[in-house]
Amino acid sequence: MYSKKVPDKFPDNFLWGGATAANQLEGGWNLDGKGLTTAEVVKKAEDRQNFTMNEVTPESLQVAVNDKTDELYPKRRGIDFYHHYKEDIKLFAEMGFKAFRLSIAWARIFPNGDETEPNEAGLRFYDSVFAECKRYGIEPIVTISHYEMPLGITLKYNGWASRKTIALFTKYTEVLFKRYQGVVKYWMTFNEINASTWGFTGTGALDSELDEPAKMQLRYQSLHHEFIASALAVKQCHQIDPQAKIGCMLARMQTYPNTPNPIDVRAAQLQDQLNLFFTDVQVRGEYPEYMNRYFAENGITLEMQADDQQIISAGKVDYLGFSYYMSTVTSANDEVEKATGNFAFGGKNPYLEASDWGWQIDPLGLRITLNEFWDRYRVPLFVVENGLGALDKVAPDGKIHDNYRIEYLRKHIEQMKEAIRDGINLMGYTMWGPIDLISASTSEMSKRYGFIYVDQDDEGQGTLKRLRKDSFDWYKKVIASNGEDLA
């Protein structure tokens, strides 16, 4: 008779924490030798439903380069973590964080991307950040490239469209792995690598003047270069610091068939394949067969070198990190009402509520995703982004009462626990983002995710004072109880 105990709680070493990105957080965009990044030439949106992160043209780029202010480019100022990191990490420690996911700004280390030697001042900044994390027993989870690269690489090589960018990236990663050997135990190569199919924010390549087929050719070729760079970085990491773990990161676009009609089921299956293609390459170490037909039908021909497949096979990641915010439905009928959020362009689900930004809230979908990932890959999983962007307001009593955020996170954490009971190997949970920061998609400040309120508005006005929201004390209780006390 077969019988095995079902786990009924989160693992004792579960990595509770929060996640951020350098270009939404740091500020200090022109200090201590840092170069301009691709994220810092994206203008803020005039309409919060309009994602501007890929709206960069040669003309707008030239305007941005000549503009030496942060007025139209809020990611340049972030929330000034560059000068507030000690205060902010202390607040994370007060909540009991076991882990803090952050990214390194590539242009702090190589300002133009192709320098002979790294910028020591940039490295010293991260020395200090990691030392502060160690002071409080917080594990840094480091994303190597999170929606940015040195702008010099775009100007000189057109970003990841050029194979030459691979060598620039591996030089950068070698510096990081050697500098932070034994300091950083968990790395990820690219944030939401599937963002490269959306354009500039992922590829760093200008493609606005191309027609749609040419755009997709450029984007998938850029992705191939990123896959090679990621695989080489995995090999580097394992050689330089065998104790470290290095993973990939996917924006999970969970979708369901709109109806039981087999044509809807097949349409949803195709969308799922197009989302899981990236992790198939990075976790399984090979291009999946289903993409051959997709490439052929869309006129995409990838240029590969003879040893590329061997490099990808040898550079499989140790764990799978992913973001999960929402789900959609997929229909073969284009007339289905759309729901958008985090670049998930599917149909609205009548069974789900939505956030102020139209992102459909589906906690059970997280459990479904975790099960599907585990069945497909059998590698440790890590929820590295999940959260609720909302219009938080300071109440007359001077506090921020965000019970809606508590409810959102509670329901998702409950489903993670159910997934663990299903047998999933789940490493941790770093919600997005523990402190209010600049929106990736619209560059606004009004869309707030944090447990910590930052006094800054969309125009950059405010004291930058940090205030604890109601959710701050709630998450502190969740971590202290290792996910048992969610009330």
UniProtKB/TrEMBL annotation:
Looking at the keywords, is Phosphoprotein present?
Answer: no
Q: Which GO terms describe its molecular function?
A: beta-glucosidase activity
What the entry lists under InterPro entries is as follows: GH, GH_1_N_CS, Glyco_hydro_1, Glyco_hydro_1_AS
Q: Which GO terms describe its cellular component?
A: cytosol
- Alphabetical UniProt keywords: Glycosidase, Hydrolase
Organism of derivation: Liquorilactobacillus aquaticus DSM 21051
Question: Would you identify the family this protein belongs to, as annotated?
Answer: Belongs to the glycosyl hydrolase 1 family.
Q: Which SUPFAM superfamilies match?
A: (Trans)glycosidases
Which protein, by its recorded name, is this? Pbg10 protein
